[in-house]
Design a protein that fits this description.
It is a single chain. It contains 31 helices and 20 strands. It has an eight-stranded mixed barrel, surrounded by six helices. The protein is elongated and about 170 Å long. The termini are far apart. Residues about 1-15 have low confidence and may be disordered.
């Protein structure tokens, strides 16, 4: 039972206390605080020891005077000496504890007082039993008055020691009751017994009340001590301080820590206006911070406040303080000032600023990130709406950056992004904010875009500056930039809508080949919606049987004999009609649908080619996404096994872009496919990121010459003719065939034949044929000529 705890105080406050614990017959589970209470009980008993000694001696003298005429002197004197000696022993024992600084007493110390009560009670109990029969009515009344007074005095004066007091009262009451019964006075005996019982109950009740009072005093003292310790710790070691002002907002009882925090002598602070002290050097100029103005309003309106943040200058350095306070009122309810607490939160503020910067700035380039860009755009749009002006948002995407990242690695790519950000920062004024959205995407927020021509010039300047060569780690790098522009609020009433509009404009710039700027047009939303609808339809096109293959003949350039077909994917939508591959194939690649669609094309082409006469081959275009997946080898093997098509009759056409991504398994996948016996053709050679190293290290069976070179050569363009001759010579030296695409006339056929091309493909020999027509052509006599 701990009186210092809230649980113990509640326990002492209730009337129920274990009687055995109260009397000192047993210890509770937690005797620590009861030890302090028992020490207080013993101390209270010692305080009245002389009073009770005097009461015993006076009572014994009075009894001696009453009984002297009736009782032999020697008997009476012996009893008086017994009472006096016992009283003195008990008094001296209790007085011996009074001068000790006892704060703890155990159970035995309290139990020992019971012996004192028993001894003293036994001495007085002899009186009615030994001398009661000698007394007449007058003397008996006198005896009872003295004994009752003595018992009552013990019950109230010595209630702090309940066990000893109850023993004393009980013995005297019992002996008096027995003497009255013996004398034939049962009514008086009952009255004495009842009186004794009442005194015992009063002793117990008073003892309980004294214990509760003492426990509450101990709890209160310990609480006060704890509060004092906390306040001392707060004052000495805390970063906070207390402050107090009067009704006129002048500092009173200046706290030393408060003064030290301001760099001011505490003695000079009392009586100084509180706001003047906090304002510091800005007081004279009246250039107050927003936090100080808010504090002044709170003080003026006499409102409580918490965690009010304001800047304070100490020795010329800005600090940040957090203030809390409540108004004070006197006993009459009159306002008499404020009392509060303040703390220096400068370090926390700096940490918060640092965290805020980390959350709003890109770690790689140091530019604002997507979060800060969105916040700045929202503010710009609010200002534009408020003033009836315009703002603008540009999205910038780097052209050919992915090729740099894939070929030279991410560290070089990161350093290139740093150079890009440096160039962008030189192009903007206070009216614009440059930021990085992520990856190779950047953005510009134009706060005031009223001058549309100036905004468009900035977009063109960005493209021009970012397209200049970069020197990074001894590499000369060439990239470009595409820009999409949206004007607010014309192109979007919210930041999200404006970003969406700029994104659509950027998408159009990328579709145009990059390196250009495009402003948003409402039609772009129509195009975007069309793409969305197409993507949804594309996801179920194969399952719904909307896709089919056409087959375009490939013939021997010299003889015109059919050597194979190229499988070409077509999509016939029931509502949208025939959709061009130029539209849905890039969409399939973006939506990550090209792998399942490509697998269907491969299996379907193999199943059909297995029906054709030998040695007609089928060529299937394969996307880089398929080749970057090692499982594609199993797809090819299963397609061949399930169709029964010999591997040498399958030719996979790949573009140079498949080799542009570092760290992938494309080359290993191609080698494993070649090991199956499948032939490999390099499509559109010379139109992209050409590298002779790929030709030398990969076992291509043929190279396809793009139709743009064929058309250029047919017009007499020297460069196109030179490229075709070079490709043919290269292929011959490596043991590869060459296929000229897009041959549409007899003149073009004769030209590519003269330039040395092995095979030709184009409308002159046949358009892409439906499966039934291709099957008929493939099962003719092998010696026939397609041109014929």
């Amino acid at each position: 039972m701990g009186p210092v705890s809230s649980q113990t105080r509640s326990q002492f406050a209730t009337p129920h206390i274990d009687a055995r614990v109260l009397l000192g017959l047993r210890d509770p589970a937690d005797a620590t605080n009861w030890g302090r209470i028992r020490a207080a009980q013993l101390h209270a008993g010692s305080q009245l020891a002389l009073f009770m000694l005097a009461a015993n001696l006076i009572g014994a003298a009075m009894i001696t005077l009453l009984l002297a005429p009736l009782v032999p002197v020697w008997e009476l004197a012996g009893w008086a000496i017994l009472v006096g000696a016992t009283s003195c022993v008990v008094a001296f024992r209790r007085l011996s504890r009074r001068n000790r600084e006892v704060v703890f007493a155990d159970l035995k110390d309290v139990r020992d007082t019971a012996y004192e009560g028993l001894a003293l009670g036994a001495a007085w109990a002899v009186l009615p039993l030994a001398f009661g029969h000698h007394a007449d009515a007058r003397v008996a009344l006198g005896l009872w008055v003295v004994l009752s007074l003595l018992m009552t005095a013990f019950a109230f004066a010595m209630a702090a020691l309940p066990l000893a007091t109850i023993a004393f009262i009980s013995l005297i009451g019992l002996s008096t009751t027995l003497s009255l019964v013996t004398a034939g006075s049962p009514v008086l005996a009952s009255a004495v017994a009842l009186f004794t019982l009442l005194l015992v109950m009063a002793t117990t009740s008073r003892s309980k009340a004294l214990v509760v009072i003492r426990a509450n005093e101990m709890a209160l003292a310990e609480r006060d001590e704890t509060v004092s310790l906390l306040l001392r710790e707060f004052e000495e070691n805390g970063s906070d301080w207390l402050w107090e002002i009067d009704a006129q907002r002048r500092i009173v009882r200046a706290n030393p820590r408060f003064a030290v925090s301001l760099g001011v002598d505490p003695a000079t602070m009392n009586g100084t206006p509180f706001l003047q002290v906090l304002a510091g050097p800005t007081w004279e100029a009246g250039n107050f911070s927003a936090g100080l103005r808010e504090l002044a309003e709170k003080l003026k309106s006499r409102e409580s406040f918490r965690d009010l943040l304001l800047p304070v200058f100490v020795d010329g350095e800005e600090h940040w303080w957090e203030m809390s306070a409540s108004p004070r009122f006197d006993e009459r309810g009159a306002f008499c000032g404020f009392r509060g607490v303040g703390s220096d939160v400068t370090e926390q503020r700096r940490s918060a600023d640092k965290i805020n910067k980390m959350a709003r700035f890109d770690t790689l380039t140091g530019l604002p990130n997507r979060l800060l860009i969105n916040e700045s755009l929202q503010r710009a749009m609010q200002e534009a709406e408020h003033w009836g002006s315009r703002c603008a948002f540009m999205m910038i995407d780097l052209d050919r950056f992915k090729a740099v990242n894939d070929t030279l690695g991410h560290p070089v790519g990161d350093r290139l992004l740093g150079r890009v950000s440096e160039r962008l920062q030189t192009l903007v004024s206070e009216n614009e904010m440059i930021g990085r959205l992520g990856g190779d995407e950047f953005a510009v927020v134009v706060r005031d875009a009223s001058d549309t021509a100036r905004t468009e010039r900035l977009a063109h300047t960005i493209i021009d500056v970012l397209s200049r060569p970069y020197e990074v780690d001894q590499h000369t790098l060439y990239i470009g930039a595409s820009v999409g522009l949206a004007i607010g609020p014309r192109d979007g009433r919210s930041a999200e809508m404006l970003i969406r509009s700029a994104d659509l404009a950027l998408y159009r710039s990328k579709d145009a080949g990059g390196g250009v700027f495009h402003a948003y047009e409402p039609q772009l939303h129509v195009v975007a919606e069309e793409r969305r609808v197409l993507e949804i339809a594309l996801r179920g096109a194969v399952e719904k049987g909307e896709m089919h293959l056409n087959y375009q003949p490939v013939v021997n350039a010299a003889s015109g004999q059919l050597t194979g077909f190229e499988a070409l994917l077509r999509w016939q939508h029931p509502e949208l009609g025939n959709i061009s591959p130029a539209k849905f194939v890039p969409l399939a690649e973006e939506a990550r649908l090209i792998a399942p669609i490509g697998e269907w094309v491969l299996r379907t082409a193999c199943d059909e080619a297995a029906r054709w006469d030998l040695p007609v081959r089928v060529a299937v275009n394969v996307s880089p996404e398929q080749l970057h997946n090692p499982a594609f080898v199993s797809v090819v093997a299963q397609a061949l096994a399930q169709s029964g098509l010999p591997p040498e009759r399958l030719e996979l056409e790949v573009t140079e872009s498949v080799f542009m991504r570092e760290g992938t398994q494309a080359l290993q996948v191609l080698e494993r496919i070649l090991d199956l016996g499948v032939r490999l053709s390099l499509d559109d050679f010379g139109t992209g990121y050409s590298s002779l190293g790929y030709l030398a290290h990969t076992r291509f069976s043929s190279i396809k010459i793009d139709r743009s070179f064929v058309q250029g050569a047919s017009k007499g363009t020297k460069e196109a003719i030179a490229i075709i001759r070079a490709v043919v010579a290269l292929a011959d030296s490596l043991g590869m065939a060459t296929t000229a695409e897009g041959v549409e006339t007899e003149e073009e056929h004769q030209m590519v034949q003269q330039l040395g091309c092995s095979k030709v493909q184009g409308y002159y020999f046949g358009r892409p044929l439906p499966v039934q027509e291709a099957r008929v052509l493939a099962t003719r006599q092998i010696g026939g000529s397609v041109a014929a």
